[in-house]
Amino acid sequence: MSPTTLFVQQLINGLSLGGMYALLALGFTLIYGILELINFAHFSVFLVGSFIGMWTLEAFGLSGQNVIMTGLPLIGVLLAAFVVSMFSCGVLGVVIERYSLRPLRNVTGPMAMITTIGVSYILFNIILLGAGADTKNFPNPLPELRFHILGAVLDVRVLLIWVVSGSLMLGLWFFVQRSRLGKAMRATAQDPDAARMMGVDVDRVILIAFFAGSALAGAAGLIFGLYYNFTSYIIGYTAGLRAFTAAVLGGIGNVPGAMLGGLIIGLIESLGGQYVAVKWTDVIIFSILVLVLVFRPTGLLGTLAPQKS
Amino acid sequence: MLTRRAAGKLIAGAAASTTLAGAGFRSALAANKVIKIGITLPLTGADAEGANRIKYGALLAIKQANDSNAVKGYTLVPVILNNATTTAGQYDPAQAATNARKLVADPEVMTAIGPEMSGDGKAMSAIYSEANIATITPASTNPDITNPKYASEYRPAHDHAAVYFRTVATDAYQGPYMANYYSDVLKVKTVYLLDDSGAYGVGLADAFEGQAKAKGMKVLGRDRLNPTEADYTVSLTKIKGLNPDGLYYGGVMGAGAKLVKQAYGILPTAMVKGGGDGLLAPEMLTAVGFPAAEGWYCTIAAPHLTQNPKVQPFVKLYESTYHTQPDDYAVTAYDAGLVITAALASLVNAGKPITRANVREAIQTSKTPTLQGVVSFDQNGDIVNKIISVFQVVKNTDYPLTDIIHQFKYIGTAPTS
């Protein structure tokens, strides 16, 4: 492999990772933007999403990489899997908000954040005890289709990640910027009391933010499984932490910032792994995070929250 | 090989005596004194299947010893203890330690077979040492337990005399012997190394690396995988760029399953890919599966005998007695039983009293013909004749694709130098 090919290949790897991190980072950022709450349960919602995706695909009779589909059946099965895992995770997010976080809404301090850590552990352990500790063979009906760019291999699964995460992010962007509900969200993020006085149903806005963020985590979980062909009870932590870092790097609370942060972390991971060493990946990622925060405490695209008390 | 033939005869003879023994020996046995032999294995939970195969191997040797009255004037009585707990769901070193104390407390227990797991062994060895009880493990391969460097930890009493004997080799030989195999048999000139950050994996890769360099192989690089990380495509792309002849991975299935899975489609099929006994696990077929697992090499720190023609009389006898197939650790457990029987018989024949210390000494100095050849031990309890067996994942459509016995094809033993 020539150096150029290698570079392009790692670029492709990095963008795929970045797409996944970005989807997850959006969940952190949406909820932080509105509640100023770091939702650690998001790690495990992602994990649950990948298991629900796996079970859905298995319900269609798929197991391992033995069944390959093409054309409309493939699109149908994938669509069904995405709908089921996104919707279930969305509902899970709503349940978490309604029953574990809303009662703590007016409690100041780190109580809510600690609660999300607790919820995260509960979900993690339910999956561990229910599904077992072994690595699961994730069903993958995608055909082995590869394209070549400058000698680098572009797998059809990579394209799927790009297309799905790109369109979901675009959809979210339009939703937040253009729709009435999105406007209500932005208003709540800016000043919940003023928004309430203007007739915004703040509780509903918060529920919707949880639903949307968690649904994106569900999509990320399914994409994860389809890309790597495996899932396991352990996947939530590392991916979740990187995604959280991405959200902070881009400016937590800022939607385009989360996307940018995700892509940057993905690229650092792949290019750092190539030109330094894979074992240094975390050191590089977190050093860059520290540096960015020293010089731009609000992250790359973040601005200081104007009227938060 | 001669010794294996001798062992074959031994089996055939014993089998014949089993049928002949019958009522004739019964009355004689009734007057016999009792020697208890502990058998400690994780008999329930995740490890149950393998543990029961080992148990039957040990029981068969004890049964034959009794049937043929190999230890004159004594009846050998197995004391079977379960090292697994429901809370652990698998082997549990705390339970293993409790079991070791139970055996020590019973004055009729003279020696033991087990444990299967190195974690259990680490918990039990010092307890056995205090009581001067020898145990023979048919399966645990962690080198630390018998390493003289850690003698004060694992055999603190009785002048650090060995109490933890093995009828298998250790992990310290899997890496180097596999490096020989890469170099001499597979003609690998350049190699890239990966490990999974764990003690076992790093040790295995270190051992491989040392011998690979001694063999004149060029090590193009080494990297460390984080087992909680999902993505290894970055590492694999880097390896693809360097294009070594071979890749060696030290580690268990945690990172291994993801590595093997993602290597498929990135690394060329022609590249030699392999690891240690961490890869010879059910997950290689269930979590990874075909086509990704195809072609990967792995090793075990024991001889592969269940398919050896000379061992077939044993296999048949085992199957007809216990209605299940033996695996290689059932064979090494049977060998452990043969060593113990021979040691006890030698004491009786020499007119020496049966004490724990004497039995330990007799095992230490024994040279016993067994199914895997003559078994003898060094001063640390390690087997002298160390054999590393090489396997390769080769799809065999005659059997279920998750059948661990038939989807790992036995290739041969790895060169010792």
Structure notes:
Chain A has helices at residues 3-35, 41-59, 71-101, 111-131, 156-178, 180-190, 192-197, 202-228, 235-250, 255-275, 281-295, and strands spanning 136-137, 146-149, 152-155, 230-231. Chain A has 309 residues and is mostly helical. Chain A has one domain: ABC transporter involved in vitamin B12 uptake, BtuC. In chain A, a hairpin with a 2-residue loop joins strand 2 and strand 3. In chain A, helix 1 packs antiparallel against helix 8 (202-228) and helix 5 (156-178) packs across helix 6 (180-190). Chain A starts with a helix and ends in a 14-residue tail after the last helix. Residues 1-10 and 12-28 of chain B have low confidence and may be disordered. Chain B has helices at residues 2-30, 48-67, 93-105, 118-131, 151-154, 171-185, 199-214, 233-242, 253-263, 283-288, 312-322, 328-349, 356-364, 404-407; strands spanning 33-41, 74-82, 109-113, 134-137, 164-166, 190-195, 218-224, 246-250, 272-275, 297-300, 368-370, 373-375, 389-393, 408-413. Helix content of chain B is 44%, strand content 18%. In chain B, helix 1 (2-30) packs parallel to helix 11 (312-322), helix 2 runs parallel beside helix 12 and helix 3 (93-105) packs parallel to helix 4 (118-131). Chain B folds into two domains: 2-170 and 306-375, Response regulator (Rossmann fold); 172-300 and 389-413, Rossmann fold (3-Layer(aba) Sandwich). The chains are: A mainly alpha (309), B alpha/beta (417). At the A-B interface, helix 1, strand 1, helix 9 and helix 10 of A face helix 8, helix 9 and helix 10 of B.
